[in-house]
Q: What sequence folds into this?
């Protein structure tokens, strides 16, 4: 089956869309060797990420099995995960 | 696997055979460009440095120019100077000559202005081209490749396909006894814990961490969240959210080979294998740094479609994004989009990329060379213009 999105490691909580996705689309997400279905809740552009399970505010965002940032608010499963709800932990002169 | 290259006196191998017309200071740029434009097989290198800078940066410029002049893709070098700059012109000339190639210097103030310098410079460059044209390509080995690794105008497809494909190629070159240079230290931030696991020993791991800390401190010193600068606005549009995410994709270019050494910007490696070089991520500065370090080939992954090439080192472009492959065909040499679509394995994509690099090393032009968009260049400095 054709993949709509891809996550690299089992522990990842976000996937990358391989095509534009719309609300209520059921996305087939390749996660490592297996595949899961996630219902998308908003528009996701090609190449953008969405949560494949709920992420609590303050939780790490995991891609490649590594921390790529932190959720600033709760991110429901299927929601767009990007600069509006994920912050970087590095290069932050504003936090010094 | 081998390629057809030009053997130089210092043992290095060129994939091109140009006469380099190098400006020694920002004030002489136009004359260097004029000379190269009028002489077939001559290329100019220009930049914005060479005067009114801190001594540290002036030294950086001297060293970068020596490195560029010694690049194996240049058969001979004409330095074009103003005459009153801070660049140590004679030291630069001697430094390049030490590599066994012919170097001439021409100065605007000494020669008597732009018009005379142009005329005399063209005459020298023509004679150099005539001499260089007698050289023939010979069969060389993969171990003669010094490959620069670069990614830019990045999106999220890149770290899933194009940079891992470069990693496969880098590992192959290293296995064959060649050299591969990983720069873009900004894009180690957030991924340095993975990179240090590849360090050949603890001292090298510490040097990698020190480079990252130095780069991050520079970014923090301005008191802002660097997001928007890194990742760039375009990266964010492409779906990259944080520098950590960008970095995890970027370091995949280094493959799994051990890091054998850590170098300053533009420094020529004295060991073979995978090495790390200090540099920022912006195209003109890193392409120049890789050329100064002696790279005879550069491979460049781009998700959104960076068009840039460099004047005398071929830059092979690959993308993992089929939309970009269609839209930016004039600038893309290879698509590895099949890797994320599941229609091509990563080793297969790596093999295709290696074949492309070998062909280009033997003389096949890159898209950037065909399009004539090859002037992404500048010397990286860290201090103020004063």
A:
């Amino acid at each position: 089956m054709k993949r709509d999105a891809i996550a690299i490691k089992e522990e990842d909580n976000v996937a990358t869309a391989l095509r534009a996705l719309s609300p209520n689309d059921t996305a087939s997400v390749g996660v490592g060797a297996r595949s899961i279905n996630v219902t998308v809740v908003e528009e996701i552009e090609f190449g953008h990420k969405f949560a494949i399970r709920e992420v609590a505010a303050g939780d790490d965002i995991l891609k490649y099995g590594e921390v790529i940032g932190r959720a600033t608010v709760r991110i429901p499963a299927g929601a767009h995960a990007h600069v509006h709800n994920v912050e970087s932990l590095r290069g932050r002169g504003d936090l010094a | 696997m081998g390629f057809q290259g030009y053997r130089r006196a210092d043992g290095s191998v060129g994939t091109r055979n140009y006469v380099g017309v190098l400006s020694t200071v920002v004030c002489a740029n136009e004359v260097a460009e004029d000379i190269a434009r009028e002489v077939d097989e001559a290329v100019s290198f220009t930049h914005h440095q060479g005067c009114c800078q801190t001594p540290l940066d002036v030294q950086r410029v001297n060293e970068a120019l020596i490195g560029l002049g010694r690049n194996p893709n240049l058969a001979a070098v004409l330095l074009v100077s103003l005459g009153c700059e801070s660049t140590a012109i004679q030291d630069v000339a001697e430094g390049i000559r030490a590599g066994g190639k012919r170097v001439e210097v021409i100065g605007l103030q000494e020669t008597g202005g732009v018009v005379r310098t142009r005329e005399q410079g063209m005459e020298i460059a023509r004679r150099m081209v005539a001499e260089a044209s007698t050289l023939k390509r010979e069969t060389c080995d993969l171990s003669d490749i010094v490959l620069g690794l670069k990614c830019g105008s990045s999106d999220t497809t890149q770290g899933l396909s194009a940079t891992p494909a470069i990693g496969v190629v880098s590992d192959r070159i290293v296995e064959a006894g060649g050299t591969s240079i990983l720069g873009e230290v900004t894009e180690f931030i957030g991924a340095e814990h993975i990179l240090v696991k590849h360090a050949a020993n603890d001292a090298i791991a510490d040097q990698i961490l020190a480079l990252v800390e130095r780069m991050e401190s520079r970014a923090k010193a301005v008191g802002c969240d660097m997001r928007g600068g890194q990742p760039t606005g375009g990266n964010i549009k492409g779906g990259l959210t944080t520098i950590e995410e960008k970095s995890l994709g970027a370091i995949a270019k280094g493959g799994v080979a051990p890091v054998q050494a850590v170098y300053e910007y533009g420094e020529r490696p004295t060991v073979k294998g995978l090495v790390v070089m200090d540099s920022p991520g912006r195209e003109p500065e890193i392409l120049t740094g890789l050329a100064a370090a002696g790279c005879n080939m550069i491979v460049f992954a781009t998700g959104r479609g960076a068009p840039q090439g460099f004047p005398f080192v071929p830059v092979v472009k690959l993308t993992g994004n089929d939309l970009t492959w269609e839209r930016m065909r004039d600038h893309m040499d290879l698509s590895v989009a099949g890797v994320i679509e599941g229609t091509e394995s990563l080793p297969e994509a790596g093999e295709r990329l290696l074949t492309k690099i070998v062909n280009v090393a033997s003389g096949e032009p890159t898209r950037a060379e065909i399009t004539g968009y090859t002037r992404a260049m500048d010397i990286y400095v860290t201090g103020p213009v004063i």
Remarks:
- Chain A has no helices and nine strands.
- The mean pLDDT of chain A is 94.
- The radius of gyration of chain A is 13 Å.
